[in-house]
Amino acid sequence: AQKITQTQPGMFVQEKEAVTLDCTYDTSDPSYGLFWYKQPSSGEMIFLIYQGSYDQQNATEGRYSLNFQKARKSANLVISASQLGDSAMYFCAMREGGSSNTGKLIFGQGTTLQVKP
Amino acid sequence: DTEVTQTPKHLVMGMTNKKSLKCEQHMGHRAMYWYKQKAKKPPELMFVYSYEKLSINESVPSRFSPECPNSSLLNLHLHALQPEDSALYLCASSRGHSSSYEQYFGPGTRLTVT
């Protein structure tokens, strides 16, 4: 069964420093997508970055990059040059793409990031 | 434009009330979703609509009734809710069910059942 694990309930980072949020996943489907979302206290889930299981290169979107290690089944989010506005909860998520694909997005438990001035 | 809108932003209702949550997207997405989220927890999938047809119901109690009147609109009708149904209700849409399609979320409706 597919599963997403985020082992860091809470993280602190100093403003302007980089931070890595961990995510490991488990699936038997060779085709899947990995996503990171940010959820500020206002509640809206904001899509940040996507990595496909067949992608050869790590995804990057501005200050966000995804450290994809397929053999280790990890998809860590790296935020460079942290800003105060990065303080939020971050969710790692996965969708399978095989014959059992139902469109379901499976979420990890989330990591709360606090950026210190 | 990657906007999904939801109304109302906040809703307080009694256990005997009937109310509806509304979700709208104009991105031409053919898959739409309802999620329920409790504080400090991940969203839990409730319903999936694909091409305006209900494709997944995650064993949601019948006091929640989804409706997809057209490809842009998704409603969630609420009736005889319980206090434990108080949560943030999120709507999302995506181009389809491919594993490469991200879901775009609305801002949510914060529901309080008294």
Question: Could you write a compact summary of the structure shown?
Answer:
By secondary structure, chain A is mostly beta strands. Chain A is built from no helices and twelve strands. Chain B is built from no helices and eleven strands.
Q: Largest sheet of chain A, described in full?
A: 6 strands, mixed
Instruction: Give the percentage of residues in beta strands of chain B.
Output: over 45%
Number of strands of chain B: 11
Please tell me what the overall shape of chain A is: globular
Structural class computed from helices and strand pairing of chain A: mainly beta
N/C terminus separation of chain A: 41 Å
Which radius of gyration of chain A do the C-alpha atoms yield?
Answer: 14 Å
Mean pLDDT of chain A: 94
Looking at how many chains there are and whether they match, the oligomeric state comes to: heterodimer
Topology:
The complex is a heterodimer of chains A (117) and B (114).
Chain A: E1 3-5, E2 10-14, E3 19-21, E4 24-26, E5 32-39, E6 46-52, E7 60-61, E8 64-69, E9 74-79, E10 88-96, E11 106-107, E12 111-116
Parallel strand pairs in A: 2-12
Antiparallel strand pairs in A: 1-4, 3-9, 5-6, 5-10, 7-8, 8-9, 10-11, 10-12
Chain B: E1 4-7, E2 10-13, E3 18-25, E4 31-37, E5 44-50, E6 53-57, E7 64-70, E8 73-79, E9 87-94, E10 104-105, E11 109-113
Parallel strand pairs in B: 2-11
Antiparallel strand pairs in B: 1-3, 3-8, 4-5, 4-9, 5-6, 7-8, 9-10, 9-11
